[in-house]
Amino acid sequence: MKKWGILLIKVVILDFDGVIVESVEIKTQAFKDLFINYPNYLDEIMNYHIKNNAISRYVKFKYIYENILKKKYSKEVESKLGREFSNLVFKKVVNCPFVSGVTDFLNNFYKKIPLYIISATPQAEINKIIMARSLGKYFKGIFGSPPGNKIDFIKNILEYENVKPGEALYIGDMIKDYKIAQKTGLNFIARKNVENFDNLDVRQYSNFTDISNWLKNKITNQCIK
Predict the structure, then answer these.
(1) Nearest to residue 172, comparing CAs of 50, 15, 11?
(2) pLDDT band of 154, cuts 50, 70, 90
(3) Which neighbouring-strand residues pair with 12?
(4) If we measure between CA atoms, which residue out of 39, 25, 89, 85 comes closest to residue 60?
(5) CA–CA separation, 220 vs 60, rounded Å?
(6) Every domain of the chain and the residues it spans
């Protein structure tokens, strides 16, 4: 286990799917439903999706069409796939359970430290989900992809908050999230979910009660700007 030493966290950045709500399997099933008419390619499509959970669905659509299905990809195809995917997942994500302990975490920390969401979900859709689940008051910023990506979002948050990477914590549930934290220099906690972090030097918890207990002694008493 990594030796954290004396650590002062000034900003917490959270992924959404699998971190705030239990929606990872919803998105996986939606990809399967979306490409169910390509049974000869479905295993390859699903393997690609699962290995790239932290990137925009539109990046995945383009890759699947051009590199797996060997079909022409256009704005019309992109729009159609986007609409169909949103129709498959929106209501289910709005109604799925919260990750255990996350509502207490949000209520305990949102007035003590800036909280941000960064997500591979499209901006308009993540905004609608946050509104439908009445979560808006907890977050200083909510970033969806496109237009940017998670590395861009993190850089923008650090600049806005005027904090160093070592003063920020990123909570994610995918190996890709861990790699993003490494690239940007952020501290990282894994929410134990579908991916296995056991072979990595990563602090990991299955619920937010344990994350809260760890974090409460590592934040400032600063007020939100």
Answers:
(1) 15
(2) very high
(3) 115, 169
(4) 85
(5) 39
(6) 11-22+98-215, 24-95
Q: Dig out the tokens for 19 from the structure.
A: 């971190």
Is 223's pLDDT higher than 70?
no
Q: Alpha-carbon distance 82 to 162, whole Å? A: 35
Measure the CA dihedral 29/206/143/54, to 10°.
-50
For 11-22+98-215, CATH number? 3.40.50.1000
Q: How many CB atoms lie within 10 A of CB 214?
A: 15
Q: Percent of the chain beyond pLDDT 70?
A: 95
pTM: 0.88
- In angstroms, rounded to a whole number, what is the distance separating the alpha carbons of residues 13 and 152? 13
Length, in residues, of the chain:
225
Closest CA to 35 of 8, 60, 3: 60
List b or e across 185-206, with b for residues whose CB sees 16 or more CB atoms inside 10 angstroms.
ebbbbbbbbebebeeeebebbe
* Pairing status of strand 168-172 against strand 11-14: parallel
The confidence band for 147, taking pLDDT boundaries of 50, 70 and 90, is: confident
Q: Return the number of other C-beta atoms located less than 10 Å from residue 161's C-beta.
A: 21
Rg over CA atoms, the chain? 18
109 neighbors 215 (Cβ within 8 angstroms):
yes
Tokens standing for 107?
């209520």
The answer to whether residue 3 scores a pLDDT higher than 60 is: no
User: pLDDT tens digits for 6-21?
Assistant: 578 999 999 999 999 9
Report residue 224 CA to chain centroid gap: 22
